[in-house]
Design goal:
Residues 75-208 form the Fungal lipase-type domain. The chain is α/β, with parallel strands linked by helices. The protein has helices spanning 15-27, 32-41, 83-90, 109-129, 143-158, 178-187, 232-243, 253-258, 260-269; strands spanning 46-54, 61-69, 73-78, 98-99, 106-107, 135-141, 166-170, 192-197, 217-220, 226-227.
């Protein structure tokens, strides 16, 4: 498993950085030994692992992540979870949302539980490893994408000295109310990029209008091209085209588009 060199000073959306962050998010699904070996290949000589359990509805779940550090950059990547399980507890709206960071807006309580379980460990690792003013980055896929965005929010609003240089998420669900989304977009504009692959089903939960996405969308169309935006009608037509790519199982397109390997493959095709 290899990846192009990560750029610790990248600004704005960068196709190569997006691919690198997707590879880092993909690596979060591997075991500790593989994570450490691959991080070393990428020039990150120190790795800390994070693992904690929490209790959303339906089943006990766990939050897993790793933080890797080089002399110039610190990256925390959060691991995702099974799409069906994630969809189940994110669709539950019977429990009130939790207060957001520094009292800013509201967060879906499942995400709040998941992040609270592991954030102290992540923060301790970033503070320990940031010994040379390294830039700080967050990434993740699925549940991990939501946690990456929220971790950046918590850092910025609770401890601005550690505000993230960049956040790339893949197949991220909606995480928070309009108030926190707006404050986040203002605070981390140009530093957060929410990548969504065509009909990815997880990017469509939990339901609006209670929960909202942060901005800075990068949409992967049905042909695999990354777009900054698409007119509403064109977007609907493109999503329909994606569903018809497999006429024998059109309903499965949302799950196929959510796979981390689909994101990596598409972003690799978009490398300059």
């Amino acid at each position: 498993m290899s990846a192009p060199t990560l750029n610790h000073q990248a600004t704005g959306y960068d196709a190569r950085q997006a691919y690198c962050m997707a590879k880092a998010a993909e690596l979060a699904y591997q075991d500790r030994e593989q994570i450490e070996a691959t991080a070393a290949e990428w020039g990150f000589d120190r790795v800390r692992h994070h693992h904690s359990t929490f209790s959303p509805p339906f089943a006990l779940s766990d939050t897993q992540a790793y933080t890797m550090a080089s002399p110039t950059m610190i990256v925390t990547a959060f691991r995702g979870t099974e799409p069906v399980q994630l969809r189940d507890w994110l669709s539950d709206t019977t429990t009130p949302p939790w207060p957001g960071p520094a009292g800013t807006g509201l967060v879906h309580y499942g995400f709040a539980e998941a992040l609270r379980a592991v954030m102290p460990s992540v923060l301790a690792a970033v503070e320990e490893l940031r010994d040379a003013e390294q830039t700080v980055w967050f990434t993740g896929h699925s549940l991990g994408g939501g946690l990456a965005m929220l971790a950046a929010a918590w850092l910025h609003f609770e401890d601005p000295r550690l505000s993230a240089q960049g956040v790339y998420t893949f197949g991220q669900p909606r995480t928070c109310d309009r108030s926190l989304a707006s404050a986040y977009d203002k605070a981390l504009k140009g530093r957060t990029f929410r990548v969504v692959n065509n009909n990815d089903i997880v990017a469509q939960v939990p339901p609006e209008p209670v929960f909202h996405h942060v901005a800075s969308l990068r949409y992967i169309d049905s042909s695999g091209r990354v777009r900054e935006s698409m007119p509403a009608v064109s977007n609907l037509l493109d999503r329909g085209k994606g569903m018809m790519a497999d006429p024998l199982a059109p309903a499965g397109d949302g799950m196929r588009d959510h796979l981390m390997k689909a994101y990596v493959a598409a972003l690799e095709k978009n490398l300059p």
